[in-house]
Write a structure and sequence with these properties.
6-stranded antiparallel beta sheet; about 280 residues; Phosphorylase Kinase, domain 1; ATP binding; transferase; 2 domains; Transferase(Phosphotransferase), domain 1; single chain; cAMP-dependent protein kinase; cAMP-dependent protein kinase activity; 10 helices; ATP-binding; alpha+beta
Amino acid sequence: PQPRYGLDHFDVVDEVGTGTFGKVLLVKLKGASPAEPRSYFAVKVLRKQDVIRSRQVEHTLSEKDVLAHVSHPFLVNLYSSFQDGLNCYMLMEFVPGGEIFAHLRQAKRFTADAARFYVCNIVLALEHLHARDIAYRDLKPENLLLRADGYVKLADFGFAKQVVDRAWTLCGTPEYLAPEIIQSSGHGKAVDYWSLGVLLFEMLAGYPPFYAGSPLEVYEKILQGISGVLFPPCIDAQAAHLIRGLLQPTLSQRLGNLAGGIEDIKRHPWFAGVRWDAVE
């Protein structure tokens, strides 16, 4: 059984993230050796008053519920949750490598091999969630954290923002939204495949496919579709074919949302040679 934790079991090392309803702290288990990596955790602190005032109680409980029911090497794990009079606390795995977007900005763009490796990690994480009828709905570079061994973890389910060096990201970035979300026409797991297409383009090109000065203009570009987007030479024909398949505005034609499901993505020629069972 999981031990019962409270905030008094930990020493606060640093504040590593901030968000609408609170912050994310790096903490260390009291009495544990500083050299023991498993003694470090991230604690998401949610101010009850703010959560209630913003009518986000359901969203917060749902995130806790989702994280409590999933366990995968490419998802940030929730170990425990507790509360006091002021706050709710979620004790989570600490992922030391930082946001993948910081690495992308430093590298300008990723090689096809690096992008393929990261996307494989993400596809397997989405497969795990989708098999449990969970849509992630917030796939974007800020929510991808690098493990110490270079693998990627999906983090935070729409809450935390890393504090460190985020000047390049538009606040509440709309670039990853699927057209069905913009049009409020009802959406499901297929939004994750759309976002995956945007992410792959950005990893390979160094900038997102739909970009403009204001969110409204970005929405217009998204609704105009991928056919109006010029692909740079660094995106090869197979990668472009995969991206276009994922960025299909018509749900019944979007790769991942067809009869073959996510297997259609895994079988795409751009992933030729990938041993999916060996990725984990």
